[in-house]
Design a protein that fits this description.
This protein has about 325 residues and is mainly alpha-helical. The protein is built from 13 helices and no strands. The protein is globular.
């Protein structure tokens, strides 16, 4: 009962966080203005993004099959795709539920141990995290002046206020942070024997071990080239899902592929945030990026973020529900051959 109550509290907290970020994304913007921009959008470009999203998930299923096959199990590509889409559907209800859900449904249909499948999902997520960090690093280095100013406006100035331009104040803050890190390491070393007995430490240790094992499992993969090819196609399609809708609004039509990579890289942080479906967090991050980096009017930026997020959400709901019913029709394997 206690775990149920804690889960409900966490869920309500994340919902509240998403609503708060949604409010921040649309602050100072009248709903009538947002609605007018949404009515003027060319939705054929969003339809293109809708189709590309489905194709990207097909490649995600094919890539997952490679990891499953590495363990000696055979899976049907259609079943794997259905499981992936049902997982995304579950993520709309509760963050991180999708990983467990897709492993559960595929385990049942293909008669594969759940733990084995979950290990492959961790490996997949670890590799995608590395790719995302790489993309973010590239766009930051290539647009250091723009992004540096953006981070200063949304992070440094709100935290440091009038001291943000004071060199000595910044030095003192960094010195304080270093001192805190040193103190933390000393305290951690002293308390480590006790911390090892706590559930939080064990979960963190398990996560780190899973991260390392995930990287190792990909390194041992026999079809590395095919795995990298699928990964490249997945992220290329993700990029196109960002770039195509730029053409839906005259004010964003001048943005380039590299601008799209910036939105994809940093905007993905809004999707991976622990908020159901990235609601609020995605809108906030993308709206801020478009307005602060590219001087897009806030009403257009908010309309782009809203329409693109809605497109992907509708796709997940429609294809996820269809996948659920199609999976029911799939015959369960009696044994894995």
């Amino acid at each position: 009962m206690k775990e149920v109550i804690i889960s409900i509290i966490k869920y309500l907290f994340f919902i509240a966080l998403g609503v708060a970020l949604l409010f921040l994304a649309f602050r100072g913007l009248a709903w009538a203005e947002l609605w007018e921009e949404l009515k003027l959008a060319n939705y054929w470009w969003f339809l293109g993004a809708f189709i590309l999203a489905i194709i990207s998930h097909v490649f995600r299923a094919l890539r997952w099959n490679l990891l499953i096959g590495q363990m000696g199990y055979k899976t049907r590509s259609s079943t794997t795709f259905y499981a992936v889409m049902i997982g995304y559907l579950a993520n709309l209800a509760l963050p991180r539920l999708g990983e467990v859900t897709r492993c559960g449904v595929l385990s049942k249909k293909e008669n594969i141990p759940f733990n084995a499948l979950f290990g492959t999902v961790i490996a997949e997520r670890v590799f995608d995290m590395v790719v995302l960090i790489f993309i973010i690093g590239i766009v930051i280095l290539a647009q250091i002046k723009k992004i540096g100013g953006f981070l200063n406006d949304i992070l440094i100035e709100p935290i440091m206020g009038v001291y943000s331009g004071n060199f000595m104040a910044i030095i003192l803050v960094f010195a304080l942070l270093i001192a805190l890190v040193i103190i933390f390491l000393i305290v951690f070393r002293k308390l480590k024997p006790w911390l090892k007995t706590t559930m939080l430490y064990q979960k963190l240790e398990s996560f780190i071990e899973g991260f390392v094992d995930g990287i190792k499992s990909i390194g041992k993969l026999k079809q590395k080239g095919l795995f990298l090819f699928h990964t490249f196609i997945i992220w290329l399609l993700y990029l196109l899902m960002v770039v195509l809708p730029f053409n839906a609004f005259p004010e964003t039509s001048f943005l380039t592929f590299f601008d799209g990579a910036t939105i994809l890289g940093i905007g993905s942080l809004g999707i991976v945030a622990p908020v159901p479906g990235g609601i609020g967090s995605y809108h906030f991050v993308v709206t801020e990026l478009l307005t602060q980096l590219f001087d897009i009017p806030v009403k257009v930026a908010a309309a782009y973020a809203t329409a693109n997020h809605a497109t992907q959400t509708i796709m997940v709901i429609v294809v996820g529900i269809v996948s659920y019913f199609l999976l029911i029709l799939v015959k369960t394997k009696a044994r894995n051959e």
